[in-house]
Amino acid sequence: MGNAGLQELLVILGCCVGLLFPAIFLFFLIMALTRKSRGWTIAAVVAGVITLVTFAIGIAYAVRSGMKEAKEQAEPRTFPTSDGVATVRGAPRWRELAIGSADSSLGIGNPYLEQYLVVITEAKADFPEGYTLAEFAPLAAEQAASNVIDLQATEFEEVTVGGLKGLRREVTGKADGLGIFYLNTYLESPGYFHQVMAWTLRENEERYRPVLKEAADSFREVGAAAP
User: Fold this and answer.
1) Could you tell me if residue 36 is left (phi over 0), alpha (psi between -120 and 50 degrees) or otherwise beta?
2) What percent of the chain clears pLDDT 90, i.e. is strictly above it?
3) DSSP string covering 195-212
């Protein structure tokens, strides 16, 4: 039995015990009050003590589990893309999210802090032979910004992420009525073109740019070099 199965079994047993002893205590208490018997009184006291101890253990376990879960969530986590080609190390308290288009292989972030990142990977075999990143990046950037109004973008900057050559630019604009800041990175490997698109609210641009950049820079291709 795995750890997850053992934990579920312990929770079930804990719930059963947590319900059983209070019920027994109430039964003994009622009998002690109605029969006025010393034996029933002693039984009620013992059952009451066991019930209190059981609740104390349950509370301690719940607190410990909550602290452990909070600690795990506070640590950065590495997320694999659904196609198994790459990974991204998210910021603390990031989780997988249902965001991005149907073509995205990974969507992660923290919706409470409005931090998001999406990965889209396309096989180079789907493009004309000799197609380059310099051709791919502007085309992908144009498609990504198709729903953005009042768009302002920086020039493409050459970057290297995980040993892959790339182009990056920052974009600000409005989408669905909200001011958005995008940090979009386009990468090329022997077998793929990758889009690593991170964003937050425009009001958080300066505050969260380092977080988005660190997550984007953590991209690593781990799959085969070619489809």
Assistant:
1) left
2) 57
3) EEEEEEEGGGHHHHHHHH
Residue 57 — φ and ψ, nearest 5°? Answer: -65, -40
Distance between first and last Cα of the chain: 37
Between CA 15 and CA 167 the distance in angstroms is: 55
CB 110 within 8 A of CB 74: no
| Structure tokens belonging to residue 175 | 């989408």
| Claim: this prediction has a pTM higher than 0.90 | no
- Cross-strand bridge partners of residue 201: 180
For 136-184, write each residue's pLDDT tens digit: 999 999 988 888 899 899 999 999 999 999 999 999 999 888 999 999 9
Total Cβ atoms within 10 A of residue 214 = 14
Q: At what angle do helices 38-74 and 3-35 cross, to 10 degrees?
A: 150
Cα–Cα distance measured from residue 48 to residue 101, given in angstroms and rounded to the nearest whole number: 57
β-bridge partners, 199: 116, 182
Helices (H) and strands (E) in the chain, counts: 4, 11
Q: Are 136 and 147 in contact (CB under 8 A)?
A: no
Give the span between the Cα atoms of 62 and 82, in whole angstroms: 33
How confident is the model over 12-49, as pLDDT tens digits? 655 555 566 677 767 766 776 776 677 767 766 676 67
In contact, 99 and 118? CB cutoff 8 Å = yes
Rounded Cα–Cα distance for residues 110 and 95 (Å): 7
